[in-house]
Structures are given as structure tokens and as C-alpha cells.
């Protein structure tokens, strides 16, 4: 997947002018890239545009104008965009104010180690960013990478109707089929990573 560069980023003033249309475009894109896996967890398959939005929003909120600080933000978000034959995703544990947050985060400790894509009978286990869980609790946000082999990519292209996301954690076992439109976007991401 193509990494972000300074050329992708506009000034806060330019961004403010384009923000309503860009924000709506990214919201629509994320609708296609976001999937619920059971009642508490959703996953967003990220790409260059979703990360560009994150950088621009961070610059806007934090009033970042310094070129070096912008480069640092780009670097942080590029770390979430896998290079090579891989797909990046953000896993979100969804909690409401009425939930017993500490108890739920304890129950889901290590959940990020139990996420996989299934294509036919092939499983692609997610690799999680280190340091976001302990034995006592987990973070409500995790950054995942699904590393593909060339044969995994071919299998995805040959069987787009047989792709699912699965979590097989002792305290949370759910699976959801990935819609064809989302699979098509993921195939595009993988093809772009080969260029």
C-alpha cells in the first residue's frame, strides 16, 4: 500500500476549505471498510486516504503547521499502513457509558491476538501492534496487519464470495462475512501494494 508523503498533505487553511467534501468522502469510504464482528467489536480496513484524513484532522485539531511536526505525524500514521503484501486495519472495542468498561476490557484482554481473515479454509492471522494489552486488560483500539502471501492474494481474488473475519478469543467468538464490495477494495489495496 502506498505510504503517505508530504505531497499528500495540505495546509490547515487549504484543508479547512476542502474539509466538508473530503470528510464526507472518507466517511463514505469507511462505511465500506468498516465491519462489525459481534456486538462489541468493529474493524476498519485502512488505506492511504483514511490515514491522510487522520493526519489532516490531527493537524487541524492540534493546530500543527511546523513541517517537522507534520512529518512526525505522517510517520506515525504510515506505521499503521503496512508495506508489501499486507492489509492494515484498526480494531475498535465499542463501549458505551453504561458499560462496565474495566470489566469488559479485562474480559477481552488479548483479543487482538485472536483475529483472522478466512478465505475458503485458509486463515490469515492478524499481527497486532505490541504493547496495547496486558494480562489484566486490553486497549479499546488496536492496530492490526494481515500479512498475505502471493497464494493468499490469488485465493482472495479467486474466492471473493468466501471471505470472513473471525475472532476466536475465549471470551469473544464471532465471525462475519465480508461483503463483496469490501473484498473488492481489499483486492485493490493488495494490488496497489505490488506496484
From TrEMBL:
InterPro entries: DUF3501 (IPR021890)
Name the record gives this protein: DUF3501 domain-containing protein
Amino acid at each position: 500500500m502506498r505510504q503517505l508523503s508530504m505531497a499528500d498533505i495540505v495546509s490547515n487553511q487549504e484543508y479547512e476549505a476542502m474539509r466538508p467534501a473530503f470528510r464526507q468522502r472518507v466517511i463514505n469510504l469507511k462505511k465500506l471498510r468498516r465491519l462489525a464482528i459481534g456486538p462489541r467489536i468493529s474493524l476498519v480496513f485502512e488505506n492511504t486516504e483514511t490515514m491522510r484524513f487522520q493526519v489532516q484532522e490531527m493537524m487541524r485539531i492540534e493546530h500543527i503547521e511546523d513541517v517537522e511536526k507534520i512529518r512526525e505525524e505522517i510517520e506515525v500514521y504510515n506505521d499503521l499502513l503496512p508495506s508489501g503484501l499486507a492489509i492494515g486495519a484498526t480494531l475498535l472495542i465499542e463501549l458505551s457509558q453504561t458499560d462496565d468498561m474495566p470489566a469488559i476490557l479485562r474480559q477481552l484482554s488479548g483479543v487482538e491476538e485472536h483475529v483472522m481473515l478466512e478465505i475458503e479454509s485458509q486463515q490469515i492471522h492478524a499481527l497486532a501492534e505490541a504493547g496495547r494489552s496486558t494480562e489484566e486488560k486490553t486497549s479499546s483500539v488496536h492496530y492490526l496487519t494481515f500479512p498475505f502471501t502471493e497464494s493468499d492474494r490469488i485465493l482472495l481474488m479467486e474466492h471473493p464470495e468466501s471471505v470472513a473475519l473471525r475472532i476466536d478469543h475465549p471470551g469473544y467468538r464471532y465471525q462475519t462475512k465480508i461483503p463483496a464490495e469490501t473484498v473488492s477494495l481489499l483486492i485493490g489495496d493488495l494490488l496497489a501494494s505490488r506496484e
